[in-house]
UniProtKB/TrEMBL annotation:
Gene3D superfamilies: NAD(P)-binding Rossmann-like Domain, UDP-galactose 4-epimerase, domain 1. InterPro entries: Epimerase_deHydtase (IPR001509), Lipid_A_modif_metabolic_enz (IPR050177), NAD(P)-bd_dom_sf (IPR036291). This is UDP-glucose 4-epimerase. It comes from Edaphobacter modestus. Transmembrane segments: none annotated.
């Protein structure tokens, strides 16, 4: 990879992908409007990247950023089901129209391949487990609809224009640099932050809700592997990125309690609109197409994330 563009580079996932790309010797360019991302995520690599404070809805800025780029890793989004329920029109812009702007810029700039941060929310609340890419999508929330529509745009751009695209459906990602104070953060980041502070976390529902919690290193690895895979194996397609294991919220709470030494309890609240009950991925398609494998399990990921969280608190 010679030159790459990461949208949403100041975010939790985008900054993690950027670090891995730099480690592989790529020239990294990034855009972010900093609405959900933070420059703190780029602190130690800021001098090594071409950072541009821009919005993915700014077509001129995105086209300029795509010039001379080989690969685009499109991570920019407002990744929140509750936010999309509260503001479906406001989130549609960044999540869907922004994706279209990126695709059109990549097409005009003759980019080799676009990798897209799709979402497991596309599957909805179908009781069938595990989720396979061949299942009929059934999105519940506006966020899920927006991300699914983005997948269709990517497939269309491959079929109509020949732009190589790959959609990676992320399942509940967690890890260092995920901001626990943000309304967009995942449940594990909030649990860890609260429990380290001796505060009581809240579970929406009875705690039996389960997720395929996926440590960030797995997601980064999947992106790099999918970028390098032969076009005939991946172009225009959708792949699950997860661990193939599911954990209930109560089990996750218990594991974090064990690692942190938290001695408090747990609050319960009503389930939220748009939330799905269970999520579990079949990852065999990604394994077959581009050699994806789980390189970090839940316990390892929690240990690494909790250690980072402790160091972050100590540094303040």
């Amino acid at each position: 990879m010679s030159t790459v563009l990461v949208t949403g580079i100041a975010g939790f996932i985008g900054s993690s992908i950027a670090r891995a790309l730099l480690a592989e010797g790529a020239q990294v360019r990034g855009i972010d409007n900093l609405s959900t991302g933070s420059m703190a995520n780029l602190e130690e690599i800021r001098s090594q990247i071409d950072f541009r404070n821009a919005d993915v809805l700014d077509q001129d800025a995105v086209l300029h950023a795509c010039r001379g780029v080989d690969y685009v890793f499109h991570e920019a989004a407002i990744p929140s089901v509750p936010k999309s329920v509260d503001d479906p029109i406001g989130t549609n812009g960044p999540n869907l129209t922004g994706t279209l702007c990126v695709l059109e810029a990549a097409r005009k700039a003759v980019v080799k391949r676009v990798l897209y941060a799709a979402s497991s929310a596309a599957y909805g609340d179908s009781p069938e487990l595990p989720k396979t890419e061949a299942m009929l999508p059934s999105p519940l929330s506006p966020y899920a609809v927006q991300k699914l529509a983005g997948e269709h745009y990517l497939a269309s751009y491959y079929r109509v224009y020949g732009l190589e695209t790959v959609s990676l459906r992320y399942f509940n990602i967690f890890g260092p640099r995920q901001d626990p104070s943000s309304q967009y953060s995942g449940v594990l980041a909030r649990f860890i932050s609260l429990m380290l502070a001796g505060q009581t976390p809240t579970i929406y529902g009875d705690g039996s809700t389960s997720r395929d919690f996926t440590y960030i290193d797995n997601v980064v690895s999947a992106n790099l592997l999918a970028a390098k895979a032969p076009a005939e194996r991946v172009a225009g397609q959708v792949f699950n990125v997860a661990t193939g294991e599911r954990t209930t919220l109560l089990e996750a709470f218990a594991e974090i309690k064990r690692i942190t030494g938290y001695t408090g309890g747990l609050n319960h609240a009503e389930e939220r609109e748009g939330d799905i009950k269970h999520s579990l991925a079949d990852i065999s398609a990604a394994q077959s197409a581009f050699g994806y494998k789980v390189i970090a399990d839940l316990v390892f990921g929690l240990e690494q994330t909790i250690e980072w969280a402790k160091e972050s608190v100590a540094a303040v």
